Amino acid sequence: MPKRRLTHRFTFLFIVALAFAGFGCDEASLKGGSTGDLDGSVDANVRVDAFVDASSNADGSMEDGGSNADSGPGDDAGTDTHFCDVNPCENSGTCSEGDETFVCDCTDTGYTGATCADDVNECDENPCQNGGSCSNTAGSYTCDCMHTGYTGATCADDVNECDQVPCENGGSCSNTVGAYTCDCAGTGYAGETCADDVNECDENPCQNGGSCSNSAGSYTCDCTGTGYSGATCSSDVNECDSNPCQNGGSCSNSAGSFSCDCGGTGYTGATCGTDVNECDANPCQNGGSCSNSAGSYTCDCTGTGYSGARARAT
Question: Is pTM, for the whole model, over 0.85?
Answer without folding.
Answer: no
